[in-house]
Amino acid sequence: MIKKTVHLHFPPEQARDAIIYRLVKEFDLVVNILQARIEPNEHGRALIELTGTRNDIQKGLQYLKGQHIEIDALSHEIRKNEDRCVHCGACVGVCPSGALAVDQDFQIVFNREQCVLCQACILACSFDAMEHSA
Question: Are 114 and 98 in contact (CB under 8 A)?
Fold first, then answer.
């Protein structure tokens, strides 16, 4: 079993379809929805983690492409630039996974293993201390 995290971009006509259900039922994938915004008659997006065999994940991604859903594979990682961080905590409040926290010395700590690559911390940081690397 492997895991793959992807961003999905839905066209308006796909917003009401049971796409995640089909990934689970037809392709035997475990789907963890990390972040999503999908509304009827509007473009939608979702950050999902797929778990399954390499073959099943590939088949599931081909299905999504056939449904005119754009897929961005996340092959980068988020990192904390210690030299730029002023430990203001802005990133902690927006982190949905708990990868960023404040320790007992009021310092921001980053747990890379908990990061879901949503990039909310990058947008929240006024000091460019949170960044992504390819």
Answer: yes
- The sign one gets for the Cα dihedral 83, 35, 19, 15 is negative
Which domains are seen in the chain, by residue range? 2-73 (3.30.70.260), 77-133 (3.30.70.20)
Distance CA 112, CA 65 (A): 30
Contact 64, 10 (CB under 8 A): no
Digit-coded pLDDT (tens) for 122-132: 889 999 999 87
Q: Average the pLDDT over 37-53 and give the result.
A: 83
Give the pLDDT confidence of 69-104 residue by residue, as tens digits: 988 866 567 889 999 999 999 999 999 889 999 999
